[in-house]
Amino acid sequence: MALLRRLVVNAPRNVRVLSTPSPASRDELDLTFNSPKDAFKSKKTSELVRAYFVYQICSVNWLVENNDMLMKRLRQVVGQRFFEAIMKATFYGQFVAGEDQNKIRPTIERLRSFGVKSILDYSVEEDLSQEEAEKREVSASISACGDMQEEGQLKQYHVEQRFADRRYKVTSARTYFYLNEASCEKNMEAFLRSIDAVAGITKSTGLMAIKLTALGRPQLLLQLSEVIMRARNYMQQIAGGTGNVLTHHKTIEDFQRYFGDHSTKPEVQQFMKKITSDKEGVLHLFPWDRIVHLFPWSNILDEDMNLSESFRVPDPKTGQMRRLISQISTKEEEMFRNMLRRLNHIIQVANEADVRVMIDAEQTYFQPAISRICLEMMRRYNKDKFLVFNTYQTYLKNTYNEIVTDLEQAHRQNFFWGAKLVRGAYIEQERARAAAMGYEDPTCENVDATTASFHKCLKEILSRVKSGKTGLGIMVASHNEDTVRYAIQLMKEHNIKPEDKVVCFGQLLGMCDHITFPLGQAGYSVYKYVPYGPVVEVLPYLSRRANENRGFLKKIKKEKKLLLKEIVRRVVSGQMFYKPIGNYTPV
């Protein structure tokens, strides 16, 4: 040890020691992402050794497949205190920033000093058995009024016992299971504490992530998703075709002709009175729907709103009003208002604290409702700045169309459109569920198709930046080097500079440092997704990280190679005790 210290002091003059850059300096970005020095200048050597050890374990299939059982056994054998010490020296230390707001501060500050910002996530998860998870999900996904089974594509918006445990084949996303309204209030409080942490630590540069399934009963999201799809089908009938209904310019006379003699009925006339047009002259049948506005969504938080009565349209054959939403009880109506009240409160508090909120994407049978609610919150809160961000999963075939539709809505209703673009977390589960339930697989056919979808969406979004149509902000949340390079290429083509605050990048803490830090040190806006929480309570999260790393063996192989190169370089050059000090300023 003493010898190593002398080597640090007496390092040869021709060996370049990792230097601290001047405050205004920016590193040159190596788009091959092959520089171990650039990747790991924010790390102590002990942290490099830990990362190499953890990745090595993640390469052993048997250990990863049995990681949950092994961690529980280890905890029983060595006791709680020693178990936590072992975890902090290995997996927890690699993938989790700390136990609470105070203990994560050093990690956040060091990230920031090397040009990297933070997305905070309180990653505590319930460790439920499959049986308990299925029981909860089925119970919380069926209305007290019963569950009417559908045929065709609409059947996906109903619970299926075989897939009630939403963790099935999912390694990279946290899952909330509804217990009761009190548990949703508790989740809301956890999100509010995350806002305090972001505001107090990140100096207004951080974000926080939330999941809507944490805030309410899943049955309500299923029913609302089904309503949205029924509404789209209804509007396709009126528009007389397929595709984006926003491109169909209809007049009041068109609707009167569609309803024929029924247009004279009082209830149909009342329905027609609510039709409005936007600034482009496109008619909306009430201010809300993502394609055309069918229902009073802007008043969804009103205490006197009744979902069963609101989601009604004229039947073109009889002229009688019919519900698009399946039966819902008075208590469930109240639960729906509670869910939106919680979300609204979180966003209001975040707005006051100048903290941006990312609403995570979830399974396709929830996503129409989640995206609709998110777009409404954008419309309310993104008038003057980016506050609410939606998430789009590009492994879904329809994501490009969804993005184009949402961009059009943002333009026509004049709000800032913020999005996180990801490949997605649920592809294996989605494919298995579609095959088992007999509806069309919503996912891209392979990895190449998913990448093509990601790049197509990214190209569409960035092509609109200089048009001035609407304020756009996009996070490229990807561990894929080719996708990051493609995003940078598009930025150059469209003359989008990092300081324009249009494009940012994101990766998980403890993964892909060889991408994140070179980007931040070169002046690009980049984030680490930073989980935190007590050791024992984040074990499900750690288990998923181990499984996810196993699924990216090729990428791990490169990171392991870079880690080993940097460890050897430091040993040879006498920098074993290098202390990272950064003076980079994040965009």
TrEMBL record:
Example of a GO biological process term: L-proline catabolic process to L-glutamate
Keyword Flavoprotein: yes
Gene3D superfamilies named among the record's database cross-references: 3.20.20.220
Proline dehydrogenase domain ranges (all copies): 106-554
Record field: catalytic activity: L-proline + a quinone = (S)-1-pyrroline-5-carboxylate + a quinol + H(+)
Cofactor: FAD
Pathway this chain belongs to: Amino-acid degradation; L-proline degradation into L-glutamate; L-glutamate from L-proline: step 1/2
Family, similarity comment: Belongs to the proline oxidase family.
The protein's name: Proline dehydrogenase
Source organism of this protein record: Bombyx mandarina
UniProt gene name: LOC114240423
